[in-house]
């Protein structure tokens, strides 16, 4: 049974990246550069932040301007000496977790600093590896790492009195050496820059910053260099992870710096190939009885063709054409939501269609902000007076031309070199549904495509019960998880932990 922990006991472990929906109708047309709709993404981000009961005090984390161009070392960290009450859920003790936190000053930036947190577990009998579990939030780009830490697969959950509860199925349970998290892109969570020039707008900037961070981390911690290295995340991580994995692989081949022993990457309910995933919305909605056949026919004829055309233009031209595609394609999603609200008279929970939102509120993550607002917690993390920005609408808006980009294009090269990929998806998620993810994974052109397509589905069994259905060939695995929505580790914590354990150990 989980036991309460002191509210100042903050473990820094996991980082995943999630996506948010567009819940209001978007006009189905190509937007001119000067259109007032250009302000829509930031406005929508602010609305969605409220739907998670979050209230960030700032649009972006600017940090302390007094730090501009200072001479501090590239990586600064300290151990977290925090009192913890109660026994751990697994084999770990709080001492075994070995918390450290600190800042990394990013090269090739004006003043950007990533805040990083690590947990080292020295349990005997567990696999030796290093993981960078990328997390942001239920928003698209712009949210900090702590949503996964406290609500999904970190070692702790937050009680209503802001004490901590051990998570019986935290992903620290089997990782022997090190889990590292980082708030990114710059301006999210506790990571900051005083210069707007450090705000990122595409995967090139984000992945270079992450690569530089990782080089600094391994330079400071050479004992982890030879560990197997895995990257995993959710939702908008469907963009971040392929780009970052490709950047690591490119750096390794070019012998740019420290060799990173990349073994695999996992994407949960991700947005990876929009031109395939957006047309899957009406198919999924019809299959799940969210819309009728007549609704499906109208969406297929009126909205899907303009979306595929706009997404193609984004891929060819970038820039404003990608903003246009964002507006045009999300009209598909908005139409489905409007139909469900009209017919069923309730606000559909698009992260889990078994549920519904209460008014504008879909999730309540306010305890996370309340905890991280405690000065004692910020002092323990070494962030001083820097205020936590749970979700940055400015970062969200800055990355909007990245949204409709296809990030599948870099994955085949990774598979050809034997780097494993796991794509998993909860079956009741609408926003990044399993069908759209299955479609792009099957459509991906690589040497094993034909054999993967021909492979049989097999049961994913945990404790004698089927928890999902999966298909594998060579380094590629796709898993549909039963009885789960967008947040698989929250909805099916034991199955998610077992999934990660088997995958990293090669027995999934």
TrEMBL record:
One of its GO terms (biological process) is proteolysis. Residues 1-25 form the signal peptide. Gene3D superfamilies: alpha/beta hydrolase. It is found in: Secreted. InterPro entries: AB_hydrolase_fold (IPR029058), Peptidase_S10 (IPR001563), Ser_caboxypep_his_AS (IPR033124), Ser_caboxypep_ser_AS (IPR018202). Keywords: Carboxypeptidase, Glycoprotein, Hydrolase, Protease, Secreted, Signal. GO terms for cellular component: extracellular region; vacuole. Its EC number is 3.4.16.-. This is Carboxypeptidase. It comes from Rhododendron griersonianum.
């Amino acid at each position: 049974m989980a036991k309460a922990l002191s509210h100042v006991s903050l473990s820094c472990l996991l980082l995943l990246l999630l996506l948010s929906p567009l819940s209001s109708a978007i006009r189905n047309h190509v937007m001119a550069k000067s259109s007032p709709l250009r302000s829509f993404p930031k406005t929508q981000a602010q609305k969605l932040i409220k739907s998670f009961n979050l209230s960030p005090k700032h649009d972006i984390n600017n940090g302390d301007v007094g730090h501009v161009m200072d001479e501090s070392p590239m990586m600064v960290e300290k151990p977290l000496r925090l009192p913890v009450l109660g026994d751990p859920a697994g084999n770990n003790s709080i001492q075994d977790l070995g918390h450290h936190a600190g800042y990394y000053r990013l090269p090739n930036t004006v003043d950007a600093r990533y805040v990083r947190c690590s947990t080292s577990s020295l349990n005997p009998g567990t696999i030796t590896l290093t993981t960078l579990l990328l997390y942001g939030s239920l928003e698209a780009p712009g949210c900090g790492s702590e949503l996964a830490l406290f609500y999904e697969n970190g070692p702790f959950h937050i009680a209503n009195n802001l004490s901590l509860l051990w998570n019986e199925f935290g992903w620290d349970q089997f990782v022997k050496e090190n889990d590292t998290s980082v708030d990114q892109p710059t301006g999210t969570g506790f990571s900051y820059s005083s210069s707007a020039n450090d705000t990122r707008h595409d995967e090139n900037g984000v992945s270079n910053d992450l690569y530089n961070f990782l080089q600094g981390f391994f330079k400071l911690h050479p004992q982890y260099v030879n560990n197997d290295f895995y990257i995993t995340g959710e939702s908008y991580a469907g963009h971040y992870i392929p780009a970052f994995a490709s950047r690591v692989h490119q750096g390794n081949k070019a012998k740019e710096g420290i060799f990173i022993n990349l073994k695999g990457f996992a994407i949960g309910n991700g947005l990876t190939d929009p031109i395939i995933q957006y047309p899957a919305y009406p198919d999924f909605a019809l299959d799940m009885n969210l819309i009728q056949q007549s609704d499906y026919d109208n969406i297929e004829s009126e909205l899907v063709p303009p979306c595929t055309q706009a997404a193609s233009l984004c891929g060819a031209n970038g820039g404003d054409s990608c903003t246009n595609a964002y507006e045009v394609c999300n009209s598909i999603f908005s139409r489905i939501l409007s139909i469900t609200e009209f017919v069923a008279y309730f606000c559909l929970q698009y992260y889990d269609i078994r549920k519904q939102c209460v008014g504008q509120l879909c999730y309540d993550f306010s305890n996370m902000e309340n905890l991280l607002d405690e000065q004692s917690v910020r002092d323990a993390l070494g962030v001083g007076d820097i205020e936590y920005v749970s979700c940055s609408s400015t970062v969200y808006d800055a990355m909007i031309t990245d949204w409709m980009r296809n990030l599948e294009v870099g994955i085949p090269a990774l598979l050809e070199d034997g780097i494993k990929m796991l794509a998993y998806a909860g079956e009741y998620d609408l926003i990044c549904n399993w069908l759209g993810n299955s479609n792009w994974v099957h459509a991906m052109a690589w040497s094993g495509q034909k054999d993967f397509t021909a492979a049989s589905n097999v049961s994913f069994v945990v404790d004698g019960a089927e928890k999902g259905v999966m298909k594998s060939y060579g380094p590629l695995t796709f898993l549909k998880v039963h009885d789960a929505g967008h947040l698989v580790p929250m909805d099916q914590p034991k199955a998610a932990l077992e999934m990660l354990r088997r995958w990293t150990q090669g027995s999934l």
